[in-house]
Amino acid sequence: MSEVRRASLEDLDRLFQLLHRGRYQIIGPRLESQAIGYGELRSREDLPIGWTEEQSPGRYRLKKRTDQAHFGFTVGPGGFRRFLQKPRESLFQANKKNNKWKVHPTESPAQKLAFLGVRGCEWKAIQIQDQVFVEGTYQDQHYQSRRSQLLVIGVDCVTSATTCFCTSFDSGPSVGEGTDLRLTEIVGDAHHYFLVRAGGKAGSRLLEKWNLDLATDKDIKQGEELVTANRQRIESHSQIATKGLKEGLVKEWNHPQWEVLGQKCLACANCTLVCPTCFCSNSVEEVSLEGDRVERFRQWDSCFTGDHAYLHGGGVRPDVKSRYRQWLTHKLSSWQDQFGEVGCTGCGRCIVWCPVGIDLREEVQILRQNSEEEK
């Protein structure tokens, strides 16, 4: 087990300095548009210091904390996904000269990125997207280029919302293994510091340059107690029973609840846009007015749109019911056939940002009720 270090607020300032010297662009949580968004951080002061959120199905509000916690919130509407899987990205250009076409693949420059404040559910989501884009038979060079230059600094969750269910899939509240650095924030009346653990060579090298003091046994115990207490709070909320989940959802393919969901869901695609693991995309081409230049772009799409299910003369999922069923069963069931695990990390974003407040935890419970009664 790696040594645990202790960092003060001034030490956190030095971390920003070290990352900037290493030519990293630091991406993390910040206040924007009356929410906690994610974007470039220049210094520690850019973090949402002293802010948290109130989250419930279909509702999100910022709220002031009584302390100056730097990571005293859960997750905002955005996330780190768009910095690895771009919402819109050029794939290639084709230019016509002397009646001949020449294709030029679009290069994706490798920018060194440092993700700061990655929660357990978000780190699990990055690992899931790695399976989709770089660990399968076909690799996405654009994603892979950015991922290869990524430094991940995770933060354990010591606060949570009623919409969190990360413990269902063992993706929180602790960040877990694999991040380059892992922080645990401890805030009290007379103290404010961070526990720091390194993981991997990059994190160990950075921690060596950071030159922090060792944490005491008391410090470590306090951090563990905070994470454990938060785990208990999360588990007291509604969760998803994972045993038999894959087979159970397939078995209920014709359950009447799908019809209820089809009437309630607006097919707005909010859930897929805020989801950290969704990867549906579409390709579009833009042609110059002169007809001598074409550029192909890949952009985010959603299985809730009618066009996404259009195949040669017709839509295979013509109504909202079938689209919602496709999304939920893929995320929790058939995803396991593809990648060996569920495609959900329990971050709760789809619940919070659904305009009509659909809670997939409750829907799964209703859909599986027959199976549970049979048992």
Plain-language structure description:
The protein has 375 residues and is an alpha+beta fold. 34% of the residues lie in helices and 25% in strands. The protein has an 8-stranded mixed beta sheet, with helices on both faces. A hairpin with a 2-residue loop joins strand 15 and strand 16. Helix 7 (245-251) packs antiparallel against helix 10 and helix 8 (257-264) packs across helix 10 (320-339). The model has no long low-confidence stretch (mean pLDDT 92).
* Helix share, percent: 25-40%
Strand line-up of the largest beta sheet: 3-2-8-9-10-11-1-12
Helix- and strand-based class? alpha+beta
Number of helices: 13
Percent in strands: 15-25%
What average pLDDT do the residues reach? Answer: 92
- What's the total number of strands? 16
Order of helices and strands: EHEEEEHEEEHHEEEHEHHHHEEEEHHHH
Looking at this protein, list some descriptive labels.
375 residues, alpha+beta, 13 helices, 16 strands, 4-stranded antiparallel sheet, 8-stranded mixed sheet, 25% strand
Question: Can you lay out the helices and strands and say which pair or pack?
Answer:
Blueprint (H helix, E strand, L loop, with lengths): L4 E3 L1 H13 L3 E8 L2 E6 L10 E6 L2 E6 L16 H4 L3 E10 L2 E6 L7 E6 L1 H14 L7 H8 L1 E6 L25 E7 L4 E7 L1 H11 L2 E2 L2 H19 L9 H7 L5 H8 L5 H5 L6 E7 L5 E8 L9 E2 L2 E2 L4 H20 L9 H4 L7 H8 L1 H6 L1
Parallel strand pairs: 2-8, 8-9, 9-10
Antiparallel strand pairs: 1-11, 1-12, 2-3, 4-5, 6-7, 6-14, 10-11, 13-14, 15-16
